[in-house]
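Hey, can you fold this?
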Amino acid sequence: MNHISETAVHISNLNKSFDDLKVLTDISLDIKKGEFLSVIGVSGCGKSTLLRIIGGLETKTEGTLLVNGQEVEKPSRKIGFVFQDHRLLPWLTVEENIKLALDRNQPDADRLVKENLELVGLGDFAKSYPGQLSGGMAQRVAIARALSNKPDILLLDEPFGALDAMTRINMQQELRRIWQQEKITMILITHDIEEAIFLGERVVVLSSRPGRIKKTVPIEEICHIQRTGTAFSSTRDLIFKEFFRDEELPFAYTI
């Protein structure tokens, strides 16, 4: 395989501005097919804007962005989105919410709904309504909906940010299981350092606005198995030091 055929997303010298406000500057990044990439940064650094540009929901100001070798001009069913808010319609059942994401003439819609609900562990909840689900279950439905079109890439914009701590950890484990099973490219936006490490094969650290890539950190496999131990803590400390400038480190935190 050549470099292009192995690359899901190619970004070179990308800049984004809203009028006179610079949001992203000189972003260059290659994401491999089947990779799980975490992108982390402080609020307002442009990480969600970067995700929206990759997904075709925003346009870049300058630079190159290729997804599967093609310029991104608009949203595509080959790129799935999962947001912090599950965005399920409360008057529709779980299966009806998922079918909304499918082509109206999709011949195997029922099979796709069933397969993806089973993938996220909710095979028995097709006829339930969103109001009958917990927050974690609703996000599982959102993931099933995003996967129903068999996308090449899944974009996740702080998908677990509204969940309680224990549910969040369980959902992280579920998402990693789904990624290992489906082997699609996943790009996660988060402000949670431990989440970024546990899920990502690499962690990209963005600076404060205008966002630029400060550091890309490869993650050891052991960090995906246990959240304790030397490898995980040393990686967390390394990213923490990049996440904050030295003068911004919280008073009680020492490295």
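Oh, and this one too while you're at it.
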Amino acid sequence: MRARSVKLAALFTGFSLFLAGCTSQASLGWLATQRGTTNQTDRVIDLWVGSWVVLLIVGVVTWGLIIWAAVAYRRRKGQSGTPAQLRVNMPIETFFTVVPLILVLGFFAFTARDQAIIEEPLPDPDVRIEVFGKRWAWDFNYLDENVYYSGMQAQELPEGPIDADSLPVLYLPVGQKVEVTIESRDVIHSFYIVDFLYKKDMIPAKTNYWYFIPEKEGVYRGKCAELCGEYHSLMLFEVRVVSQEEYDQHMDELRAMGNVGRLGPEYNVLQNLPGTSASGEEG
């Protein structure tokens, strides 16, 4: 009776896992995005889900062996003393060494391959945007349009949540090649668009770049992903991927507001770092 109950429980568990794997969220590895959000998200999703499938198989085999050993070699009624001890088992020890090494090398190879593809610059970008992280908000320079947007940190409402209308907003035209130049005005930040499944560090006196193509219109969440001080949790922003017409309209609105020009490194808090003109050093 007990054996039958165990078999039924195992069957039910396996069936539940199978049904869970059929959900759309499971196919994304429970990542906060959808396929086709950018030209890069599918690659990240496939790497993530593939890694978890391999790890799940390894976990099931490992736990299965542990449970089997605990059951098969348990102390039975009437037994006493210490079981026979084995000092060396070369085949098993070799297996436990080689298989994890192969897994680690495999994960490294696939990750390095995908990261190299994602980091590859896009030739002749259609849109060039410069992003400055600052405690605790963002400045966006639309370099091709010669306009800018200066944001402030998220504002907390008396009842608890933040005022969504106060968030800095970055506009991107759908289907266009985007080059984002990423810099910091003060301390280390990290430019993270959650739904795009990628982030880039913002390091003082160092410029990073990110190239991608947004492929779905919508409103996406962004945040700083590097602890940067007291109000780090309020260093939020939105990304709006819109049609070319709506993007051009927003550029005209920024011009009408007088936001013409560029908020460059002259507004950086730190002006004496290697690589800055004030220090007199080359970094």
